[in-house]
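Cross-posting from the chemistry board since nobody answered there.

I work mostly on the small-molecule side, so proteins are not my area. We synthesized flavin-adenine dinucleotide and want a rough idea of how it might sit in this target. Sequence and SMILES are below. Is it possible to get a predicted 3D structure of the two together?
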Amino acid sequence: MVVQVANSIYETQTTEIAKHLLDATRQKRSFFAQMRDHIRWDDKLLAWAMSNPGLRVQLFRFIDALPALGSKTEVARHLQEYLGDESVELPAALKNLLNFANPDSMPGQLAASTVSTAVETLANKYIAGATIKQAIKTIERLRKDKMAFTLDLLGEAVITEAEAQSYLERYLDLMEQLTQEAKNWSTVSEIDQADGEELSRVQVSVKLTAFYSQFDPLDPEGSKKQVCDRIRILLRRAKELGAAVHFDMEQYVYKDMTLGILKELLMEDEFRDRTDLGITLQAYLQDSKRDLKDIITWAKERGNPLTVRLVKGAYWDQETIKSLQNHWQQPVYNQKSATDANFEEMTQLLLENHQYLYAAIGSHNVRSQAKAIAIAEQLNIPRRNFEMQVLYGMGDQLAKALVQRGHRVRVYAPYGELLPGMAYLIRRLLENTANSSFLRQSLEERPVEELIAPPVVDEEPVGAGFTDNVIAKTDNLTKPAPSPIPHPQFPNAPDTDYAQAEAREKAQNALETVRQQLGKTYYPFINGDYQPTTETVDSVNPANPSEIIGKVGLLSIEQAETALNAAKAAFPGWRRTPVKQRADILRQAAKLMEGRREELSAWICLEVGKALREADAEVSEAIDFCRYYGDEMERLEGGYIYDVAGETNRYVYQPRGIAVVISPWNFPLAIATGMTVAALVAGNCTLLKPAETSSVIAAKLAEILVAAGIPQGVFQYVPGKGSQVGAYMVKHPDTHLIAFTGSQEVGCRIYADAAIVQPGQTHLKRVIAEMGGKNAIIVDESADLDQAVAGVVKSAFGYSGQKCSACSRVIVLDPIHDTVVERLIEATRSLNIGAAELASTQVGPVIDDTARNRIQDYIEKGRQEAEIAVECEVPETGYFVSPTIFTNVSPDAKIAQEEIFGPVVAVIRVKDFQDALAVANGTKYALTGGLYSRTPSHIDQASTEFEVGNLYINRTITGAIVSRQPFGGFKLSGVGSKAGGPDYLLQFLEPRTITENIQRQGFAPIEGVD
Ligand SMILES: Cc1cc2nc3c(=O)[nH]c(=O)nc-3n(C[C@H](O)[C@H](O)[C@H](O)COP(=O)(O)OP(=O)(O)OC[C@H]3O[C@@H](n4cnc5c(N)ncnc54)[C@H](O)[C@@H]3O)c2cc1C
């Protein structure tokens, strides 16, 4: 079905204006200009990128890395690595340029200079200068052309409070210098005055997220407070100086919060009468029209207009990828024409409300601008209330044509160094070269009628029509192309999107409900009944140990024996239960967990001190395990058929028998669920012994499995002391299999105990043990440091470092070592430390007193071995340990070799990448590892030589997702196949081969023959 956008009363005029504008923007350039363009490398690069999608991806990736490359040789090497990729078809001129054997050679240096200069020229097209001085020159040129400006300070991602403070200070300074300079500018009435009103000559554009390093939709109140404290200072100073301030709009996750904060702030008495402020709305968002209506209502109440800058939106690719990865609904429209149509509708709505809101129409699309002009002219909108905006370097001709038509045009001019400006430059390059972009289509000289036709929206399913950008970015072109076994995509349970107010409210309500249920007693569940125990232990909130989460009945040895007997009795029935029925019980459990998601997260948060977002991700993982292993068992059920004529050969699986699951406290729900349901669905009768400190959550899992229909004796919940009852069950002759996750020390003991054949035992036991890690992240010179520093902080201090995947060593190459360390220290200092249930918390408590003391002992050792770079204050109540960074750590130091399982990081300086890999591999563990690099050969080398079970490149190293990133390591990190992967269930099964001779007296049916 095709939805035709209504042919509005403005259409005829829109078409006329658009034709006129297009004509003006397409005026023939002089012969000399064309000649010059023909030989300019920057133009050539863009032209090639447009004609070759493979080259476009690799070229933009190279450009992204370029400012980080320290020498011409490095530039030449990266040029070859990126553009020499087999997938890239090079135009002859580029092939010639790159035809050098050695990056050190003269031709290599020439190629480096040529391309670097071309990229610099490209950057200068879109960036108004590297310094304020240069930016002022640009502004003065714009003013000569009768164009107003808004200045944006390009900056690296704000990940530390020092950076947030510096952002504010740099803007204060910028406004000061600009307004000082503005005094020398002669009046340009077209832009400095409107309807008898003097307009601010100086306008700056700012981003809300840059005012607070921990800006987070999960914590709207905390973020608001911090951001507003700084913005108030900015707005007060702007008023004193007579500068206008405009707020940009960033990614969708921040949108509601940004609007909420601004609506509240700009209603404050002090700011309520200000009309020189503005906010931005993005028409590519499906809920943007609703937001505009809200803003109109709000503006009416406010009583003083401010500006709404209407744009289509700059993060389409990012938003699409993010929603695909998280299985969230796509917030942006999926068709370019839908964005265009919405832009036009919003333009009309905005202009129809011009007495409440001033309109700034930000677009380089002639049709979009023409429609706005047509409406503005018909509605006779006063000059003050309407202006057109373009980005610097994106719509020069259009801007000139608009000025000539008598409109006020404002140019959005970013300025600053190229390195922090790279994200901006790449966005512009993508936009300019995307197939769907108006600018590109116009450059291709598409027919006028096509370019200015009203947008037509096809109705099509969500997910269709992704642009060339997304497709190109998602298939990894830097890798050689082996042919992996295709695996159907598993539909993971989506995590909660805390940008939604409703989700935050549900989480808060669940915390309150769970609080009312604290202190109950949880007894073992044996043979279908809860059995009282003589001993109980308190499980407490590690952030507030006086708060008892629950009392847990400790299983006695006699009860363990009863449970094992019950399991033995239930086994024959359970092994005969059809696989589908077993899998359906898991699916039902997943459904029950989904229904209790917020409640389960709240229990995790309170019992083990895991912050809300991570607790929520853990519930998703538990759900995924149930569904994934259910599917996997159904896949394996059929076994394999190796028949030949006259003989059938069947390869089938049977369960092992009795499984003892010993689960840890750090993923109290996900790991307990994963190991338990894997054992169950494979047909084993299973006893779950959770860690003492997380037995309440395990009791919730037991409730869920029972409610899902697990038969009596098949699953039993057996909390107890690991060293007594745990060891008893491990050694028991009736136990067939032990699935364990925890420390290397306990894991190795279980491995040894299980190897001893006990009297009466007629089988060998299988042990699956996932143990520790001493995980390293390597940061090389080409890394994106915004990404690397934020990734290290999250990987190291998320859940206070108490994940086996957590980063505890950061290996940094010498040339960037000091920069990385400096930012790492500041980023760590900027973290909020507190109780896990608080929305502002990034670092919660550690699990208990013993853990705290052990970690503190390591910190003391560290003081003797290395230099302590960060220690933060922590709350007095609760088991808190400060996030701690040691620098100048020797690779052999204890803190660089032993697993600490807490928020302690050792930074190790190395001379080059080979050294980095050697240090990374120099421990007894091989669990997870990370690499931040934009050097393809380093990525390739790490892929084969970095000895870890899970290698993460240019992202955090924690948070493996079922099926997408099967998890587990080797060396002393564990024995067994990866959890959440295609080999995992095999460990819970015994394979058998059944061969039958089906010939009778020389006769057997032969397939295909009658
Ligand atoms: C003065 C000014 C300030 C700006 N400030 C901001 C800001 O604060 N925040 C921000 O996000 N952007 C901002 N932008 C950037 C702006 O969003 C992009 O430059 C703009 O979207 C390009 O649109 P266009 O109308 O010029 O071009 P067009 O070519 O007509 O439109 C391109 C746009 O369409 C959208 N699109 C592309 N493919 C699809 C698809 N398959 N389905 C749906 N939509 C699609 C994308 O948003 C893309 O950017 C600003 C732009 C200007 C001019």
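Reply from a structural biologist on the board:
Welcome over. Reading the output above for you: The longest helix spans residues 612-637. Confidence is low (pLDDT under 50) at residues 1-6, 462-482. Happy to explain the token format if needed.
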